[in-house]
Amino acid sequence: MEISEIQVDGYEKVLRCRDADSGLHAIIAVHDTTLGPALGGMRMWPYASEDEALFDVLRLSRGMTFKSAVAETGLGGGKSVIIGDPKTQKSEKLFLAMGRFVDSLDGKYITAEDMNIGIPDLDIVKRETRWVTGLSRESGSSGNPSPYTARGCLQGMRAVLEVVHGTDSFDGRRVVLQGVGAVGGGLAVLLKEAGAEVYICDINVDRVRELSKEYGFKVVTEEEQFDVECDIYAPCARGAGINDETIPRLRCKAIAGSANNQLLEPRHADDLRELGILYAPDYVINAGGIINVSVELLPGGYDEAEALRRIDRIYDNLKLLFEISERENLSTRAASQRLAEQRIAEARSR
Ligand code: NAD
Hints:
CATH class of the largest domain: Alpha Beta
Number of domains: 2
CATH topology of the largest domain: Rossmann fold
Bound molecules: nicotinamide-adenine-dinucleotide
CATH architecture of the largest domain: 3-Layer(aba) Sandwich
Number of strands: 13
CATH superfamily of the largest domain: NAD(P)-binding Rossmann-like Domain
Order of helices and strands: EEEEEHEHEHHEHEHEEEHEHHHHH
Helix content: 40-55%
């Protein structure tokens, strides 16, 4: 196994691994460990080149630093990518080699699930390194993060409603959910229980049928979702849905959902601000999963009650950054960036 360092300005450590025996070609980026060890998922993707993989892992690891800083997980930011086709190139040997690669950082980088990497893959990685989180509850780990992400989103929506309506009550508030998978489906149920009027939209028609039958959600098509007048539009499917085409169509007072990278470009945060649409920055409101995972790393190990207490602080974090946004005349996205930078700078100066 050959591990070599790639020098990148602004990053603590970026390592490349090539292993002829298993075919592993991977990169781990540790962006910043000021606030704690760098936690971030492991992704497998058929990148066209190492440069493309490097671009992705740098961008994602930096994002994790900011996400953890705002969520106060006591962690830094990192990420790993395996270059390869997840459909044809997964093997036991590959994940054992990846485990040794993760282990070589001696806990400076801690891994978890990400795109195309599941629990069975991480179970193999774990045989070579203890620096793996997010495994099953039975194994003493924190388990499936989705219900916790959904809970965090609900808390974030409370903060949004308070700013928009002066009260955090969901009674009669209308929420349109784009995507009702692992997170969106759970969130829809929580919203209904809280008294909201829930509209759902998903390309998986069977899922929509099932959920609406069971819970009485109203259903909207992909076309109609933007035209529904509502309090909150909640992207819970994929990224980049908020863009030049969709923004003029939105008839919501706020955007708050679990999807990563909801804005196609950072400037769209300014567009939303100008239109008076309150945007809950995605990486702040969807931090429930990582907060849940971070509790595994506390001295006493995973404790669900503690995880829930910490997840509920998403409400306070959003309130705080909405205040910063108002006071400093910044988009909420820029305000969250500022909050993260402040928290890192404070820790550095201690
Ligand atoms: P999922 O795959 O379980 O659900 C996504 C759902 O969106 C699916 O039901 C899919 O059919 C639907 N969908 C896809 N494209 C759509 C479209 N164009 N219009 C409508 N519906 C569409 O994924 P998930 O785990 O629920 O995650 C949802 C989003 O939240 C993702 O962006 C994910 O990165 C993000 N996220 C998830 C977690 C977590 O804990 N699972 C944590 C942080 C962020």
